[in-house]
Each structure stands twice: as C-alpha cells, then as structure tokens.
Amino acid sequence: MRVTGADGTSIAGRDGVPVNGLLEWSDIVIPSPGAYRVEVSIVRTAVPVSPFVASWSVDGAPVARAKTVLSSRSWAPFAAALAAAWLVIVAIGSWWTKRRARWQRGNGEGDGNPPSPLGRMDL
Question: Is this model's pTM higher than 0.85 or not?
Fold first, then answer.
C-alpha cells in the first residue's frame, strides 16, 4: 500500500498480511489538506489481482470556536434587587387597592371618588 500526495511525494508505504480479512495501520498521518492518491497492490500467486488506485480530497480541520460566555458575573445581586423592587410594587399596589376600596364604600366622600388635592368642590 502506498499513499502519495498530489505533487507525487510519497506520504506512506506499508507492506502487510491481513489477519481475519483486515489490514490496518494507525501510524499513517496525512500532513495537510489536499488531494491524495492510494495505491494498493495485492500479491497473490494463484489468482493475480490488478492494483487498486483511488484518489480523494482531504478537507481542512474545522475552525475551533470559543465557548460563548455572556458574563462571568453572579446574577444573585441583580435577582435580589429585582425581587425587592417587585415586593415594593406589590405592596404599593395592595395599599392603593385597599385605599380605593374604602373610597368606593363611601368612607366620608359620598360619591366614592378619591378626594381632590384642591379640596371638595360643590357646584
């Protein structure tokens, strides 16, 4: 077996005998992307076999991508501030709802409307 580059340089050449129909070499390294050619010659005295020749193209390795990191800061302070703001909004909303309910029951303001900042005006 022989592996050659597109320019004709020999990358690897190995001889071997298959075991259970398998023959492999793990030490062959393709040096760079490009076109390569493999030629396999089988030596068999009983029934000769013509050499097998194949060409293939090796692409470059994919570009390494960095992990996407949005932030390395802790979210705890932001979450605590957001929770505190939410509690304040809920407390104000509750207070405001109770206050309006009292006005609507006619608690001193006969028409059920909140008092005017200018005072009561009868027309």
Answer: no
